[in-house]
Each structure stands twice: as C-alpha cells, then as structure tokens.
Amino acid sequence: MKRFGKIQFFTLATLIFLCSCGKADKVADSKVKEEKPKVKLASVKAENVEQIQEFTATVESDVKNNIAPSTPVRIEKIFVEVGNQVRKGQKLVQMDASSLNQVKSQLDNLKIEFARIDELYKVGGASKSEWDAKKMNLDMMQTSYRNLLRNTSLTSPISGVVTARNYDSGDMYSGGLPVLTVEKISPVKLRINISEDYFTKVKKGMTAKIKLDVYGDEEFTGKITLIYPTIDNTTRTFPVEITVANGGQKVRPGMFARVSMNFGTIEHVVVPDQAVVKQTGSGDRYVYVYNNGRVSYNKVILGRRMGSEYELISGVSNNSQVVIAGQTRLNNGIAVEVEK
Fold first, then answer.
1. 208 with 224: CB under 8 angstroms?
2. Where does 54-61+185-265 sit in CATH, by number?
3. pTM higher than 0.85 for the full model?
C-alpha cells in the first residue's frame, strides 16, 4: 500500500513538472514572437537628378611631330633645346650636306645638257625621244634634290615647343628615335571613353569641366571636338576627344586629368546613404523596403553619390519607405517593428 502511494506521488509530481515546463516554453515562444527587429525608416521619392559623369584621362598635345631624316646621316648641328618655342618653318637641325652637294652638281650638269638638247630639238637637230629622255632624267634628279634638301635642313612643320632631344651635334643618326620632337600645346586634347547609353546625347561643342591633380580645385573648360562613330563591342563605350584652348599653357601633355560632363537631368529615386547595404562577398548593393509591417531585400543599381544621398538607377519604387537603421538583424520578408 505504501509502495502504491509513492508511485502515485511520483506520477503526480512528474505531470506537474511537465505542465510547468510546457507553460514556460509557451511563454518563451510568445516572447520570441513578440521581439521583432526594430528599424528606422525614411520616405524616398523620385527627383530630377543631373546626369553628371566623371572620367579620367591623360592630357595629349594637339599635334606631335617627330623630326628626323629619312635615311641615316651624320648630324652637323642642332639649333634648339628642349623647352624652346619654335615657329612653323623654322630650321631646327642641319644634317651633313655631302650627298646633297653631289646631287646638286649632277642636277646643274643635267640642266646644262637639257638646255642644249632643247635648243637642238627646236631647230630639228634632236629627236623627240632624245628630248624626252633628257627631260625625264632632269625631273628625276630635281625630285631627288628636293628630297635630300628636306632631309638635310630639317624644319619644324608646326609652331610649338620642343619636348624631346635624343641626339647631340656630331652624332650619327641611324634611325630609331627621332632627332627632336615638337608638340603643339595650345590647344591640348583629352580622349575619354563614354558609355554607349549616352551616344545620342553627346554632341560636338558640348562643354566639359576639367581638373588636374597638380592644380588642385582649379577648373579648366574644354569642348568636345571629335566623336568617334563606332562603339567598342567589348567595353560598350565610344571615344570622344575634348579640346582645351590652353592659352596660358598651364595644361601640359602627360598630366592626369579628371573630366566631368553633364548629360542633362533624369527622374530617379534618391535614398539616404544609410539605406544602402553591401552584400558580403560581392559588389552588389541592396536596400530594405518596408511594406505592411515587413521588409523586402531589393537589389539596386547605384547612380551618382550626392553628399549623403545616392541616386538609384533601379530597385526602389517612387514614394517607398526604406530602412535606414537596424539592417543587421533583417532578412528578406521578415516582420519588423518601426521605431518612431
């Protein structure tokens, strides 16, 4: 009888314990269900956003000429140095004139011979074929003389500045590097590659704002002077040349430039930068959008950053509410509590 009583007592105690545990679990479950992640929201809307695109480029001279003879020959004298300003047609280099003098003597003799045959031909003392042969020899020698003259006395084809000198007077020019390089640096030009999305918006004469690292925030102005007519099928871009007047010659070839261009305005949603979340392990960006007590994880494409805001090309609808704080505990579709 005592043993039966003990069994009843043990069974009753076990039932009481299990009931109390069940109640505790239910209380705990209800607390978990009640503890929704807390978030802060911001209302966003579409605005007219200036489509300003930035590019990088290296400054180039408007024209670059390499000064060199067409054949190996000794350099007699170089008349200019790097940094010198030169004018179009100015004599820069005198090459050895031995070959030129020889050809000049031959040309003078041919002129005398042709004058003689020409007189004979006029009075019937020479045939037409003899006259033609002498005339052809004279023309060929005159062409050779002109070519040698150009390659003996080297002049500048442009007005500009000497930017390279690779030889000294007395050196033997044997090809390879030019004797001198002359560049026109008023104006200068920059070449940038623009996305095909803007192909129909780019026009000759459009203005570009240019900053050079060496001059800090000082701004220069350029204009589009050349638009390439085809799209690169790999990069989906097309080249554009921008010309800078460079009257003061502050902008020099080789400088690193940052180019800004305004392609007008377009209506896009603008969100606070706190709303943008970077997905770990990728370059994708997301924004949590709030709707009826829950949030959705929306992939977005960013446009310009404007101070503390981002332009969104896509991903969030106009007049949405987005999460700007509390994203660390969120998942797609989760219910949230909004903090005021």
1. yes
2. 2.40.30.170
3. no
